[in-house]
Amino acid sequence: MAREGAGRGERLTEASSGRLHALLRRAVDVRPDEVRTMLVSFAYFFFVLSGWFVLRPLREAVAVATGVSKLPFLFAGTLAAVLLANPLFAALVVRFAARKFIAITYHFFVANILVFYALMTFVAPVEGSAGDIWIGRAFFVWTSVFNLFVVSIFWAFMADSFRSEQAKRLFGFIAVGGTLGSVLGSAATAALAPRIGTPNLLLLSAALIELAVLCVMRFPARLGTADRPVTLRDDAPIGGSLWAGLTHVVKSPYLLGISAFLILLTMGSTILYFEQTDIVGKAFADRAARTAVMARVELVVQSLTLVTQIFLTGRLIRWLGLAASLAFLPFVSLVGFAALGTWPVFLTVATLAIARRAGNFALNNPAMEILFTVVPREDKYKAKNFIETFVYRAGDQVGAWGYAGLAALGLGISGIAFAAVPIAGVWMMLGVWLGRAQARLAGRPQQ
């Protein structure tokens, strides 16, 4: 009787799994034995980005209050912080298994969030005070490190867990989890900031990051296809050199190409960020209004991204190919900066920001993460993290001081926007080269 009941339960579970798989197949080309892994990845990214996007509008409000002229110094502080954080993270990768060092890193960031909560609540609760200004600047630098690490670690884990062929099918849908989290985080901040105040939002972010840790700990031990399973080798430390992230990038033309692609991406993003900050600062008077409008922009970005990721991302990457997918955002940027140079107003900068950020989340980010599925496992954590933190922030520096230099030469918003057009052209050509290089490496045996 017990066996009969157990058998009936197993059949019901299989039937439920079959219905879930059939439902998911309408949106993504997922195999039955990939469903659980994909859904846990989906939830993991949801909690990571919802936690970050609760904080993002707070950071943007600090940037606007600080002023465009001081942003290059904040970006320099961020680069220094990233330079300090990278070897510390690499030391964790050398010593601990993947799940362990991911959990340690996220717990550390949660502890930081709680420290900022205490500072904003008990040390400098008055907006505009000297303490508030300096805590805000420290918060800007910290969040600029935090967002890179938590997202880079997530995608490193994904690149370690999925093969190139699986990534092209599944990464777009997994990214939907992050987009939903972004929408939730942006909407929560827009709705709650005027009601409960900034410090209490930090507690919400901390709780969401802890839920991401839970997903890491519950991540399936095996995944793959029935004919070619892949075992997650997270039962032992990755090992290797503490400085492998840097040395492997320098020795690899492919990793150097990814680095250059990311630098050009961040240069364009930084130029747009400065122009957006300048225009928004003139259009909106106080911090609450700026926080609300930036949260609304994020909400539009993530809503547009969500629709694209659910129905188009995976299909577009397979239909267009990786090279064309990587060239898409540079093309949008080329057209957008030309438009901003012609019409330097809030509507133009908001439209370009929405188009770039939606295109980045929906297509460019998943396409870039596919690039790392063909590198050795050590590089997926060390070199990838080095590129997506230090190299990324170095690109910020080039963009920030380049913007300051062009402004010092007398160029206004229009002139600087036009200067970004050729940068986008070079970026587009590099994207095509990387897509073709990935296709060649995907046919080689993986280490």
Write up this protein.
The chain has 447 residues and is mainly α. The protein has a single domain (34-222, 242-442), classed as Up-down Bundle (Growth Hormone, Chain: A), CATH 1.20.1250. It is 83% helix and 2% strand. It contains 14 helices and two strands. The protein has helices spanning 2-24, 35-66, 71-95, 98-123, 130-161, 164-196, 198-217, 244-251, 253-283, 287-320, 322-342, 346-371, 377-408, 413-442, and strands spanning 222-225, 228-231. It has a two-stranded antiparallel ribbon. Strand 1 and strand 2 form a beta hairpin. Helix 9 (253-283) packs across helix 13 (377-408), helix 9 packs antiparallel against helix 14 (413-442) and helix 10 packs across helix 12.
Secondary structure tally: strands: 2
What oligomeric state do these chains adopt?
single chain
Ends apart, CA distance between termini: 50 Å
Q: Find the CATH superfamily.
A: MFS general substrate transporter like domains
Beta-strand fraction estimate: under 5%
Can you tell me the residue ranges where pLDDT is under 50 for at least 5 consecutive residues? 8-12, 224-234
Main beta-sheet strand count, sense and barrel state: 2 strands, antiparallel
In the CATH scheme, the class would be: Mainly Alpha
Report the CATH topology name.
Answer: Growth Hormone, Chain: A
Alpha-carbon Rg, integer: 22 Å
Query: Largest beta sheet: what is the strand line-up?
Result: 1-2
SS-derived structural category: mainly alpha
Shape: globular
> How many individual helices?
14
Let me know the average pLDDT.
81
Helix content: over 70%
